[in-house]
Amino acid sequence: MNHPHEIRPNLEQGIDRKVLSQLRQRYLTLNQGRLERAMEGLSSRQQQVLTLLALFFHVNHPLLPGYVSGATPAGVANFEPDAQLLAEAQRLTRSFSYKARRGNPPQPIHGLYLMGSLGTLAQAEQSDMDVWVCHAADLTENELTELRKKCQLLEVWAASQGAEAHLFLIEPQGFVQGERDSQLSSDDCGTTQHYLLLDEFYRTAIWLAGRTPLWWLVPVYEEQRYCQYIETLLSKRFVRAEDHLDLGHLAHIPPGEFVGAGLWQLFKGIESPYKSVLKLLLTEVYASEHPQVQCLSLQFKKAVFANRLDLDELDPYMMVYRRIEQYLQGRGEHQRLELVRRSLYLKVNKKLSGLPRQRSASWQRALLQRLSQEWGWDERQLALLDSRSQWKVRQVAVERRELVAELNYSYRFLCQFARNQNATSRIDQRDLSVLGRRLYAAFERRAGKVEFINPGIAPDLAEDTLTLVQSPNRKEPGQTHWGLYNGNLGVHEWEHFAPIKRCRELLELLTWAHRNGVIDSTTRLALHPGTSDLSEYELFNLLSSLQQSVPLPLPRVSDQRLLQPSVADEVLLLVNVGIDPLQHHRDLNVLMTTERTDSLSYAGVRENLVLALDQVTLNSWNEVQVQRYDSEHALLRCLRDYLSGLSNAGHRPQLRVHCFCHNRANAIAQRVEEVFATAQALLSQGLNHRYVLQVQQHTHVLELQAGAINLITLDSTEALLTYLCEERVDYSPLHLDGNALQDYDLAHLLPLGQPACVQVFYRIQDAWADLYVLDEHNALWQQRIPFHDESSLLLPLQRFLDSITLRSDARLPLDDLHCHGSAQALYYQLMPSGPGKVRSVEPRQAPRLTFGMPCYEVQAILQPGVGDRVMVTLYCNQREFSELEHGDQLYAMVAREIIAQRRQAERYRCYITDLDLSEVLADEQGSTTLYLRYKRELEQALNDGLEQIQADLDRRPAPLA
Question: Rounded to whole angstroms, how far apart are CA atoms 432 and 260?
């Protein structure tokens, strides 16, 4: 049904100039009402800014704000200041006098428009003034530069008057083509929103001076033929071109704009959800109607054509709300609608609680009051919303659930819409992915992550007084938990109250309270430590450490960091929280003065004083995580996980280690920090390092690799030796913690490992000698053998090493051999000889075979047999002895051959001098350790055979005289 005063011009039936003039006047009437509402909410100085802007763009005068030079483009179309405006300017600058320009001077400033929340239900004291300064298309680059400078100077002047103004230069022809060189409002997400920004402009803009939009005059039913319609208006001079400007139409909105608008509002909503909920829902409404979108600006234009000019109903925020209300009621989503109502009420920010029900003096309050009555809100509901600045944890947590659900719903809706409409460009897809990570980082729950409960809901959650309590967990007998309570509660008094938050571990609770601002520097804490050893001193220092490692407020995370996986930025390690280790190990109290004071193997009983670690991590996505490590291997598990987090990234976090327990706190913290620093430094070197630590009676090896961190726990020194002797395929530096293997020779030689060489260490122990070899990959080989002299100890080994080196070199191209050389054998003696601790490691010359010395060649060739069996063939002085021929008598036969070659009185070990493993290794190059291992097994078999034959000879009766 048509309104009695509805205007319906069309091209076929003709257009009436009088009707067009009447239509324009309706817009101007609405415009004046909005301008008056905008002025009502401004201070007198802010009003002055808005009033004088047109004059400042109309004239260039050195005494007026914004003056750049006489060459700056000036002159606002169809504008002439009245006496009241000139008087206002003279109050600002008494020496100013206005001279009207004669003739037909240029008017390059086509129009001034105020857009945004001024003049709307949501106008507040801090609302920005976003002004579009529309200018002629033919300005030179120098003129544009002058005009930009003028805008900047006027923004500075406005700020001095208490107004935050943003002046945006618009060239209408370029704008219609989608061209712009900057944001066009302080709430503008960039170039991806053209039509939605134009929609907002047409329904919110307040005309200040200059030309009026042609769009005003085009009926909604002619929007599809907009270009044809305005061409008729101009060509047939129904309107004058110099009275109007064209910013384009809204016949079609590309689906990608809904994605872009939603992304921007979701981005803002993570920190200020109430401000974004309305625009997010409007975007959803528009997108759900695509492609037949009736945007609000067209609805606004329909109302003007129909002469429905109620300022309240055409208020931009009222129109947004009504459209969303209609949409959600049609879907039966009443909970979402209640959230929208709360968001609108809090956005308007005009308190209604405690006010009489009669009409308020403020039009915003009166309209909001009418709405709240329509919604059925009672005084209790109003009082709750009006007290948002005092909301604390419980109310914020309730509100957060709904806000987070709404933001996540909007994100899923946008993703689905983008897929259905194929509406994402590669840039949009990147933005969607980054936004998904922002939402994940802000709101996703997972084990160990500290939930942030206050994304712009309440200004301050800090409590004046809190009580911290450790108490038995009735649901888990034998376990305890920690609770945080409002107020200063006495012993057992807290039992009658519900805690604000309850956690199994103290640090999880304190970190949550700090991250959410529940505990700040002014909060007073009462402590009931229960069965823990927590003191007020320790509690104070724990909170100080948290404030240092997780400084609030956290800075905004850049898109660049979100494009990468999250990495730790700050790591805080807190040792023995609420635990005194010397109380835990009461038998240690009497041993505190003993010589051995390593915190990981304390005193004579070798106890570990690191009983628990709490790790607090702030990562590059601003996520805060807490992890607890306790029990026997807490330190090593914590260290392994920490290093694993570093292994795939070059980034290194700031690591802080603290301990505040009653006994030996500094020594414990320093020891833990030393272990972490050493391991981190080794990992940073980029090789496959091994780090050996002694904790209590256990030896632990951390294998520090680029891809993974392995932790190996060994129960005995023998197990460690077995591990160290394992063959390796690459060089792996070995590092001993300062307290590892202190009582063993290995502690002196293992740290000396070098790549690309074989290192032989020996120590003479009276009738025995210990041989150790670190091969080219830093794997260990060791053997204890009878000692006669250094020559018989070292020469057989050197001959063997020379032989396998020769074999290895024969496999290499000569050029490679010349470039890199053969693996060198280095010799060292552990000193002093005999029993007792090693004091030094001294280099020795490699032994050399002297010409003329007897030399028995014993070569072994190993070949794969049946299954895992290896077949052995031995050559003694070039004579072949094989298992094929001699079976299990092989070693005895070779031993007889060796004895036959010796002088009768000689008794010493026999040695393998050469070994071929080419078939066993399938032509791969084995490590020196592997060759030495086979060598030792073969020599053991040979010498066992030798001893048996020698014993048989000794038992044989002496020959008759």
Answer: 9
